[in-house]
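User: I'm writing a tutorial on reading structure tokens. Could you give me a worked example: one chain, its sequence, then its tokens, then a sentence or two explaining what the tokens reveal?
Assistant: Sure. Here is the example chain.
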Amino acid sequence: MEIVVDSHTHTIASGHAYSTIIENAQASKAKGLKLLCTTDHAPEMPGAPHYWFFNNQRVLPRFLHEVGILRGCEANTKNIDGELDLPPSSYQHLDWVIASFHEPVFPPSTEAEHTQALINVIKSGKVDVLGHLGNPNYPFDIKAVMEWAREYNVAIEVNNTSLTGKSRKGSDIHCSKIVEIGKEVGVFFTTGSDAHFCEEIARLDLAKALLEKHNVDEEKIISTSTSRFLNFLLLRGKERIEEFEELY
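And here are its predicted structure tokens:
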């Protein structure tokens, strides 16, 4: 299995990351990626940029160092109603929106409340993927959320950083169960390094190994080809990106 898209990365704009978009693109090219999703933290995460940062991503070239750039954001799930910390005006400027739980924005609660929040996020239609779901601080009804994700064509991220044990410790067991049940339900998966430094870009070996362990069909892993990834965005109702025509 070859992974050609890193769907979760950060730049210095996130406030606690250490590389620029140029440095991330250079690392992406060196490591053989075809597409890079730049997904800095949304405004309610401490140190994150103002929403104008996301609304202005149209100034980014579609290719940097021969790597296709997808304009994105890692939004914060704020409450059980599934509200996110991006204003309505932002979504039209973004190709790829991740929704994640982060302790400073949504303090861990009960399994029932986490489940309801995730389902409402999915039903909102605003997000393309659920980020680092393996965090043991946020248990949820895996099968229920996977079924809603399948129905609404929301991808499930396999987050490589979560599997390293360096952050969100204990995620590995939860991630394995999520992939196991997600495969049974028939969801789409994607792979994100969650890089906060350019050398971490495309570090997806643990995510890849977990997907292979559960024998997930490659056609269900959208980051395995530019065509799968970009056509998933069309499935999500996004507009075709003219500059990427040869990648569809």
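What the tokens reveal: The chain has a mean pLDDT of 97. The first helix runs from residue 21 to 30.
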